[in-house]
């Protein structure tokens, strides 16, 4: 009887230990949707966020907003050229912005396409994607 009780206790403890270590016992750790970054988002965070802010609002009289403006939603060639050549002292949507935006021509075509697509599809913007081929064509036309 003592042996039977000992075997039963060992078996119970073994089952409990196995259940505690089984994948079903642990909650699955999936990355939250907010943690998954869109192509272009990392480039934006590294190169654009400081001036244009996390929400794309810009800084009055210094750096223009990136949401709802014709510069972002309109002509892709003009927007691509802003990244390739930089911009300074430009009136945008009736407001003057004096801070110089340096050229970002060090980014490759795919990176520029990704960051511009990110900007054109975030901050309440709903515009079509920019492709690496479009960037390449504008860069070649310089």
Automatic annotation (TrEMBL):
Residues 35-123 form the Cytochrome c domain. GO terms for molecular function: electron transfer activity; heme binding; metal ion binding. Residues 1-20 form the signal peptide. SUPFAM superfamilies: Cytochrome c. InterPro entries: Cyt_c-like_dom, Cyt_c-like_dom_sf, Cytochrome_c-type_DH. The keyword Membrane does not apply. PANTHER family: ALCOHOL DEHYDROGENASE CYTOCHROME C SUBUNIT, BLL4482 PROTEIN-RELATED. This is Cytochrome c. It comes from Spirosoma taeanense.
């Amino acid at each position: 009887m003592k042996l039977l009780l000992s075997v039963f206790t060992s078996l119970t403890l073994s089952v409990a230990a196995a259940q505690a270590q089984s994948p079903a016992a642990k909650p699955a750790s999936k990355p939250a949707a907010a943690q998954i970054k869109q192509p272009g988002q990392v480039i934006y965070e590294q190169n654009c966020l400081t001036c244009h802010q996390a929400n794309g609002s810009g800084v009055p009289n210094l750096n223009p907003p990136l949401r709802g403006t014709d510069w972002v939603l309109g002509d892709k060639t003009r927007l691509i050229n802003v990244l390739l050549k930089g911009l300074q002292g430009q009136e945008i949507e009736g407001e003057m912005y004096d801070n110089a935006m340096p050229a970002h021509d060090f980014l490759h075509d795919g990176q520029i396409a990704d960051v511009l697509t990110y900007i054109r599809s975030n901050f309440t913007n709903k515009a079509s994607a920019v492709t690496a081929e479009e960037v390449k064509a504008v860069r070649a036309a310089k």
